[in-house]
Amino acid sequence: MILISEKADPPVIKLGDYYKYIYQIKKQAKKEKKTEVKEIRISFQEAESDLLRKAKQAEEFLNEGHQVRIKMILKGRQLIHIDLAKEKMKKILDNIEIPFKIVNEIKQQGNTLFTLISRK
To answer: Are 46 and 76 in contact, with CB atoms under 8 Å apart?
Structure first.
């Protein structure tokens, strides 16, 4: 006997194989994937080829249905050149080929620049 709903009056019970019922519940839970926020860290002095590689990694995360946070930590005198850092962030966004929407614009929080994107 499998208890379906205990809140109903009288409680709803079904006759069946308990292990098959548990298997179906686990199988259903696997289908319901939760979206995660994956993070890609880039540096201020990142080469163009590395930006392309990280853009492809972001595409893979977006294809899997995850959101992607792109993060750049600035150190020392790099904080003076926020405009150059924002350009580098825009370059990596331009290199992502699949359609995406920007959830959070490029923001600065302390010595960190970040943006959050998800698939359209």
So the answer is: no
* Residue 62 CB neighbour total at 10 angstroms: 20
Residues paired with residue 67 on neighbouring β-strands, in sequence order: 37
The whole-angstrom distance between residue 112's C-alpha and the CA centroid of its chain comes to: 18
This prediction has a pTM of: 0.69
In total, the chain counts a number of residues equal to 120
| Strand positions, DSSP E, 20-109 | 37-42, 67-73, 100-109
CATH architecture of 37-119: 2-Layer Sandwich (3.30)
Domain boundaries, the chain: 2-31, 37-119
Residues contacting 79, CB < 8 A, separation 6+ = 111
In tens digits, the chain (120 residues) has pLDDT values of: 778 788 888 888 888 888 888 898 888 888 776 778 999 999 999 999 999 999 999 999 999 889 999 999 999 999 999 999 999 999 999 999 999 999 999 999 999 999 999 998
